[in-house]
Amino acid sequence: MTSANTKRLQVAICGAGIGGLTFALALSRYPDIDIEIYESARALTEVGAGIGIFPRPWKVIKMLGLEADLLQVTETAVVDGSVSGFRYRKSDQYEGKDFFTLVTQGSLMLFHRADYQQTLLNHLPKRCRTHCSKRLRSYTQRQSGPIELSFEDGTMASCDVLVGADGVKSAVRAGVLGEKARWAKGEGKWKEAAEILQHVDPIWSGATAYRALIPAQKLQAIAPNHQVLHTPGVQYLGKQGYIIAYRISGSKFINFVAFVVQHHLENTTFNGPWMSTVDVSAFSSTFTHWEPDVQILLSCVEKPMQWAIHTVRPMQSFVSGRVALLGDAAHSMTPHQGSGAGQAIEDACILAAVLGHPSTDRTNVAHRALRVYDSIRCPYAYRVMEASRINGRYFTLRLDEDGAIDIDKLPPKQQWEYLQRLGHAIVKNWEWAWTTSIDTALQEALRLLES
Ligand SMILES: Cc1cc2nc3c(=O)[nH]c(=O)nc-3n(C[C@H](O)[C@H](O)[C@H](O)COP(=O)(O)OP(=O)(O)OC[C@H]3O[C@@H](n4cnc5c(N)ncnc54)[C@H](O)[C@@H]3O)c2cc1C
Fold first, then answer.
1. Cα 308 to middle of ligand 1, angstroms
2. Over the stretch 99-115, which tens digit does the pLDDT of each residue have?
3. What are phi and psi of 210, to 5 degrees?
4. Distance of CA 417 to CAs 43, 238, 399, 414, Å?
5. Phi first, then psi: what are they for 248, rounded to 5°?
6. 257 CB within 6 A, ligand 1
7. CB neighbourhood size of 103 (10 A)
8. What's this model's pTM, rounded to 2 decimal places?
9. What separation in Å is there between the alpha carbon of 170 and the centre of ligand 1?
10. In this protein, which residues make up the domain named FAD-binding (predicted)?
11. DSSP type of residue 268
12. pLDDT tens digits for range 254-285
């Protein structure tokens, strides 16, 4: 067996979430690359919640050979052509109103997160060594020689390339920005250095999500005709927030997420823990006057988890020398387009392809492979991040940025026209997810690398 230091590259991945594990699997196709995964948690677990995967990242999943296993744990059928998905309702009134059905080209695949993670782990070869209880504190990178990693438990490790897949509070992102700020200071650019450091801390989006898994049998017993039991999924929209509900795990559970959205608090600081278990009363008051279907769902929710939705300020680059960011560490976005994990999966695909390319080695990785990754993924992921932010506005029935038009003050005919315009705006803003393909990005990355 080749020992690690005779391998072409030693890659350390910090974080074993969806992004880190998908990247490890994609990179494991190159036997001459050594892979070590460092994860801060004591064991690999996922939150008890659902996840939707759009056609672009689904293509990556197929490339990685995960499709057959994942199809065992979803009720979503793979359709390549037009497929009717979520139904949208104006629900913040006694009688809700269906106004639009999302039609995508290719299915939005729906899973339980734990099933997705388990499938990844089942496919991950043993040579990708995963070290749990290893929280990265910082790293040191010099012009040449290995990158030194320092962990909270006092231990050290080294690598040629460090990939930060350590989520929204990323220690690797703090390191990348710290390096860039030091270089700026070295050139006397103090203002630039201060601006760079402002990107370290995530910012609150003004949205708070309340997640729960509802046993489908429980809903069935109360309301056998409830539309969530008989459709691919429903989004209940209102001016103060929205609810999304769809079936997962062979229809055993309903993935329920209620969002309370306070646009005026976007980019402020959230006071309190970002994640905690709360009582339904923590958010139900926002939905008290909503339609009966919503009340039935609320009556089924137990022990919801509260998530204050944080994002990162867009940076100029995901890369610093031989260190690269991936997933939420690079572009944590609002979940209003169900695409944060999808974008992490796309990062994983492109980053693995450029690192695995036979021309990439220790000496050129910073100037070629990682620059190509950055040039392809950074602009795209931030475009999706902005589209997701805009969806958050649309889902609270606001077509305009400042919410100047109050839909409830419009006469019925105009209100209906407004809702139709909203439906079109949602599709237009979202269609990148099914009208474009990851293949083009992959080809462009390889073309740039080989040119
Ligand atoms: C309510 C909600 C619904 C969503 N729905 C969807 C959806 O339908 N579709 C979709 O595509 N996306 C969705 N997302 C977004 C998606 O969950 C995230 O974008 C995705 O999980 C990010 O994966 P990641 O691997 O980059 O980060 P994470 O999942 O955060 O993983 C980071 C990992 O790094 C570890 N870590 C952290 N710090 C360190 C350290 N210093 N050292 C070592 N390890 C560390 C953590 O323990 C964790 O395991 C949703 C998000 C929310 C909040």
1. 13
2. 999 999 998 998 999 99
3. -120, 110
4. 51, 16, 12, 5
5. -140, 175
6. yes
7. 12
8. 0.95
9. 11
10. 9-176, 312-387
11. B
12. 999 999 999 999 999 999 999 999 999 999 99
